[in-house]
Structure formats: structure tokens, C-alpha cells
Write a structure and sequence with these properties.
The complex is a heterodimer of chains A (292) and B (279).
Chain A (H helix, E strand, L loop, with lengths): L2 H30 L6 H16 L5 H29 L4 H23 L4 E2 L7 E4 L2 E4 H23 L1 H11 L1 H7 L3 H27 L1 E2 L3 H15 L5 H21 L5 H15 L14
Antiparallel strand pairs in A: 1-4, 2-3
Chain B lengths: L1 H6 L2 E10 L7 E9 L3 E5 L6 H9 L6 E6 L2 E2 L5 H6 L2 E4 L11 H8 L7 H11 L1 H4 L11 H13 L5 E5 L7 H16 L3 E5 L3 H7 L2 E6 L2 E6 L1 H6 L1 H7 L17 H4 L19
Parallel strand pairs in B: 3-8, 3-9, 6-7, 7-8
Antiparallel strand pairs in B: 1-2, 1-4, 4-5, 9-10
Helix pairs in contact in B: 4-7
The complex binds adenosine-5'-triphosphate and magnesium ion.
């Protein structure tokens, strides 16, 4: 198989991982208005959640689900006990951003205290390789892409067709108008943290399964590429984040294949800077809003 | 008719309400009553605190003092979404629709506190506001200013309110659209809703009003039947701006001498120029 096709195959898998992470970040940002610097640690928590679950069962789907539940709970609690009280006192976004930076380091160190700073590994399902069109995918690759697509579809259906999803978009448009329209705005925000946390937990767990090993810093290293994808898609637009992830996954893997794999982060930064210079509102920016 | 007005039910009663954005109150001990199937108009200079008063009633701002009686129940300080459930709807002065939601989705959100028969009510909104029907699947950001105001009204009516607060529904509209909006407001009154309206076009608004309030510096200055306020030469000269817009409904022309005396820095609310005049 050609280097190019090989890299594109890798790119698709990477895109699926980034998409999960970026969509979670974008959804949470669009509804809560807070750029969450602790998002990387949300991913990491998902990895360790799956790790703990693996002491009980090797069923990948249950392990991923446990990772999702752990992070959903953590995200909900963080909103409830930290973000929301600050918000109610009228704290500025910059203050809340700094708080999420502090949270990032606290969670990171909490994980190191509990699990140690060394790497852990997950038992991956049997690595049968199958040919799909021009690509070769492992079973794990297939699961990762399947889970990612399933969650994107579920999110799309929620946002477009359910009353709750529509009220999420309404809150993203205007909190004040949402409230006076009769939407229980604090509840929608809280459930969005829960939902975005759940997706971030899935993202973390599948990143760990796909990579095999991880450490307390693995999620953090994904933060840059996640922000790059989310910003490329227009931060606060989950749909844009999906496309941004596809672009980033493909470009970093293909670029990495021809240059050196250590250039992937550099390529991600390059894309981020380019987008911010040329289209700060994201590639699909029609108007300057953070509409979903 | 003031006699007839006092006979009808008071749906909203605001008693010595004080509210603001910080330690200094903007609205000071304001009082306002709105009766079922009547248009109550709130006028006053720019910055008088009209919008602030509506926000405090709607629960966007927490009043520091006073009472808001909604159908007899004191609701001051309650969360806005609870008030909507209790029958209070509010259309803000700016940002009154969800721009990224379609027109239909805006209506659905308006009906979120009355989930059943949302489609039927959306359908009757399309009958009341025919402009909306053709745009149901379009994002609200693609609507014109006038259409947005219609959607904002329709969105508020989807909650089936007993009291409707509307902040400047005709701001920035062409005379034709202004006329259409007033037609709708009269139609809404016909359905038994108590309407509280803030308006820049003071003359027109008072001519339409069953009852008017003049708010100055966050305090009640005067209230009475709309035409009586219009005909009050002193108040008219001080607080009601000159307007060339001829009034639509109602009988008789507004007193002509008011406009001519409208000079000096205290004169404010004119319809044509929505610029900030005076202090
Ligand atoms: N969000 C806000 N934060 C702080 N002060 C505000 C805010 N909104 C309004 N104000 C102040 O409150 C006062 C009253 O404003 P308000 O908007 O209620 O006036 P208004 O009567 O509606 O005026 P207009 O006719 O121009 O709409 C003004 O002095 C204004 O500067
Ligand atoms: Mg105002």
C-alpha cells in the first residue's frame, strides 16, 4: 500500500479521535461560553475511568462507557460547584478561563497521586486487520471510527430534532432571551456540561484504546490539536468542529508521514495560526456568532 | 374610559418597585398596573428606566424592593422561566429572537412551557402573522427588522400569556410596518391579554393606549388615560416629543400645540431620530 493511502487511513482514525474531543469542547463552549482549558484532563479522566473498568471487564464498550460516566459526572460537578457559583456573581470569562487552567493542573496532579506518573496500558481487542477499500484497519480502528460516527449522528439528532437540543442552541444564541422565553437556562447549561463531559470521556477512552498506552499527560497533549480543530470549525460550532477534525486528522497524518511524525503538533499549530490569521471566526464563518 | 378601565381585572400590579444594575437604583419605587384586554403604555425620556422596569418585572433583574403581583400572586425575584410558566411573557428591546434557530424553532421555544399543541399554536401564529409562514424553515437572522419584531411577538404569544410586556416593538420600522405592528397589538388585546408597551413614538402610543404612564428618572411622573396625558399641555411639552407621524386608530387628533412647544434639552422622544437627545 502506498505511503499516501496508508497515511490517509491513519488520518481518518486520527480524525475520528479528534472529532470526538473537539465536538465535546465546542458544544460545552457554545452553551457555557467558557473556553475550558481543563478539557485535556477530561480526556485523561476518561482514560483512567476505562482503566479502572478494565479491572472488572475486558468489554471495550463497557470500559468506554465507564470512562464517559466518570467524566460526565466530573464535568457536571465542576459546573455545579465552581463555574456556576462564579457565574452567578458575574465573573468575567477571563476569570473563568484562569479557573479552568487551575483545574487542569489540579486534575493532572490528582491523577498522578492516585495512579502514579508512569504509563498504563489497556488490553485492546483482538487485532485482526481488515481491508476496507484501499485502507487497512485494525479492529480497534474500526471501533474508534464507528463510535465516533455514532456519537456525531446522535449529537446531530439531539441538536436538530429534540426540544432539549433546540433549547441548547437557544441558550448558545442568548442566555437572557432563553430565560425569558421559559427555558430553564441553568438546567440546560448543567446538562450540557454533563453531555460534553460524557463525549470527552468517550474521546479519552478511545484515544487510550487506540494508542494502547497513556499517562497523566496524554489528554493534555491532545488539547492543542483539539483547540485547533474546534477553532478551524469556528469555536462553538460542533458541526464545524467535525469538519475541522477531519482536516486536522488528515493533514497531520499525511504531513507527518512525509516529514516526520514529530511534526504533527507543529502542523496543528500551523493550521491554528493560519485559520486565526485568515478567518478568525472559523472556516465556515458566516456571521460572527457562536451559533451551533 | 377610565371608569370602564377600573372595572376590568388587574392582571399585573407593580408596587413601589426598585431595581438597577448595581448599587445605584435605576428604577425607584415605580408603580404600574395593567388590566386584562387593555394596552398600558409606558413612556419617558431615553434612559428613564423603562426597559429596566420591564426587565425587573420579567425577572431578568432582581428587584431590591417592592412587589410584582401577577394575577394576584407576588412573584418579585422569581426566575424568568418560572414567570413565563405563570403567564408572563416579555419581548426585549434588542436581541428578541434566536438568530441561529429557524422561525419554526423560535416558535417552538416560545411554547416550551406549554408543550402540548405547540404545532396548533404555531399554526395560529402563522395566521396572525402571515409573513412568518413563508419563512418557517429559515434561520431568524435572515428576517428583516419588521419580521423579527413579528416573530418576537409570536414567540412570546406561544406561551399563551395573560400579561405581555413588549419593549419598543416598532423601533426602526417603516411607517407601513409600524402600522402592521399596531394592528397586531390591537388584535392581541382583543384576545384578552394585558399588554404593557414601551414606546418611543409617544404620541402614537398614547393615542392607542387605554392607560399611560410617564416615567422620568426612574420615577413615576404621571399616569392616566392615554388621551388625557396627550392633552396635558405642561407634561406634553416637557416629556412628549414632537412627532410628525399621524396616529392611526382611535378617535380625534392629538393636541397639536404640544409639538410646537417642544424645545429645550428636556425634550426627548422623537420617532424619526432614535438618537440619544438630552441628558
Ligand atoms: N446593562 C446595563 N448595565 C448598567 N447600566 C445600564 C444597563 N442598561 C441600562 N443601564 C442604565 O440604566 C438607565 C436606564 O436605562 P433603560 O435602558 O432602562 O432606559 P430606557 O428608558 O429604556 O431608555 P431608552 O428609551 O433609550 O430605551 C440608563 O442610565 C442606562 O445607562
Ligand atoms: Mg429602553
Amino acid at each position: 500500500m502506498s505511503t499516501f493511502m496508508h497515511a490517509v487511513g491513519f488520518g481518518l482514525v486520527t480524525s475520528a479521535l479528534i472529532a470526538l474531543s473537539a465536538v465535546a469542547l465546542s458544544l460545552q463552549f457554545s452553551v457555557s461560553n467558557i473556553p475550558n482549558f481543563a478539557h485535556g484532563e477530561f480526556l485523561t479522566l476518561g482514560m483512567y475511568g476505562a482503566l479502572v473498568a478494565q479491572y472488572v471487564t475486558n468489554n471495550v464498550f463497557i470500559d468506554v462507557l465507564v470512562g464517559a460516566i466518570v467524566v460526565a459526572t466530573a464535568a457536571w460537578l465542576i459546573n455545579r460547584t465552581i463555574i456556576e457559583p462564579f457565574n452567578r456573581r458575574g465573573a468575567k470569562v477571563t476569570v473563568l478561563f484562569v479557573i479552568t487552567i487551575a483545574l487542569s493542573f489540579m486534575i493532572q496532579n490528582g491523577i498522578i497521586i492516585f495512579f502514579g506518573g508512569t504509563t498504563h496500558s489497556l488490553v485492546v481487542p483482538s487485532e485482526t486487520v481488515s481491508q476496507v477499500g484501499p485502507f487497512l484497519f485494525t479492529a480497534t480502528d474500526m471501533i474508534v471510527m464507528g463510535v465516533s460516527v455514532a456519537i456525531m449522528v446522535a449529537l446531530h439528532v439531539t441538536l436538530r430534532y429534540t426540544t432539549f437540543g433546540k433549547s441548547q442552541r437557544a441558550v448558545a444564541d442568548s442566555r437572557e432571551l432563553a430565560s425569558v422565553t421559559g427555558i430553564n437556562m441553568p438546567r440546560v447549561v448543567a446538562l450540557t456540561w454533563l453531555m460534553a463531559g460524557g463525549i470527552a470521556g468517550v474521546a479519552g477512552a478511545v484515544i487510550a484504546f487506540q494508542g494502547g498506552t497513556f499517562s497523566p499527560l496524554t489528554g493534555y497533549t491532545f488539547l492543542l490539536v483539539t483547540f485547533a480543530a474546534a477553532v478551524a470549525g469556528g469555536l462553538g460550532r460542533p458541526y464545524g468542529a467535525m469538519i475541522g477534525a477531519l482536516i486536522l486528522g488528515l493533514v497531520t497524518e499525511v504531513g507527518g508521514a512525509y516529514l516526520a511524525s514529530s511534526y504533527k503538533q507543529v502542523i496543528a499549530v500551523g493550521i491554528l495560526v493560519l485559520v486565526l490569521l485568515i478567518k478568525p471566526g472559523g472556516l465556515f464563518d458566516a456571521r460572527g456568532s457562536t451559533a451551533i | 374610559m377610565p371608569e370602564a378601565a377600573t372595572d376590568t381585572a388587574v392582571a399585573l400590579s407593580v408596587e413601589s418597585l426598585t431595581a438597577g444594575y448595581g448599587p445605584v437604583p435605576v428604577v425607584k419605587k415605580a408603580t404600574l398596573r395593567a388590566r386584562t384586554a387593555e394596552i398600558t403604555v409606558l413612556v419617558g425620556p431615553n434612559g428613564a428606566g423603562k426597559s429596566t422596569l420591564l426587565k425587573a418585572i420579567a425577572g431578568v433583574l432582581r428587584p431590591t424592593e417592592g412587589h410584582v403581583l401577577l394575577n394576584g400572586q407576588d412573584v418579585a425575584g422569581r426566575a424568568p422561566d418560572r414567570l413565563v410558566k405563570m403567564g408572563l411573557a416579555y419581548v426585549p428591546q434588542v436581541a428578541n429572537v434566536f438568530p441561529s434557530l429557524t422561525v419554526m424553532e423560535n416558535l417552538e421555544m416560545g411554547g416550551i412551557v406549554r408543550r402540548h399543541s405547540v404545532r396548533d399554536r404555531a399554526e395560529s401564529m402563522c395566521e396572525l402573522f402571515p409573513d412568518l409562514r413563508a419563512a418557517l424553515r429559515r434561520p431568524a437572522r435572515t428576517l428583516s427588522g419588521g419580521q423579527r419584531n413579528m416573530l418576537a411577538l409570536a414567540r412570546a404569544l406561544m406561551a399563551d400569556p395573560s400579561v405581555l410586556l413588549v419593549d419598543e416593538p416598532t423601533a426602526g420600522l417603516s411607517p407601513r410596518y409600524e402600522q402592521v405592528v399596531w394592528d397586531h397589538i390591537r388584535a392581541i388585546r382583543q384576545t384578552g391579554v394585558a399588554i404593557v408597551l414601551v414606546e418611543q413614538n409617544t404620541r402614537r402610543a398614547l393615542a392607542e393606549a387605554d392607560w399611560g404612564y410617564v416615567l422620568v428618572n426612574g420615577e413615576n411622573r404621571l399616569d392616566g388615560p392615554g388621551r388625557e396625558i396627550l392633552d396635558n399641555p405642561e407634561i406634553g411639552a416637557l416629556y412628549i416629543g414632537k412627532s410628525t407621524t399621524t396616529h392611526g386608530g382611535g378617535a380625534g387628533a392629538p393636541a397639536a400645540h404640544n409639538g410646537d412647544q417642544n424645545t429645550g434639552e428636556t425634550a426627548v422622544t422623537t420617532n424619526e431620530t432614535r438618537k440619544e437627545v438630552g441628558p
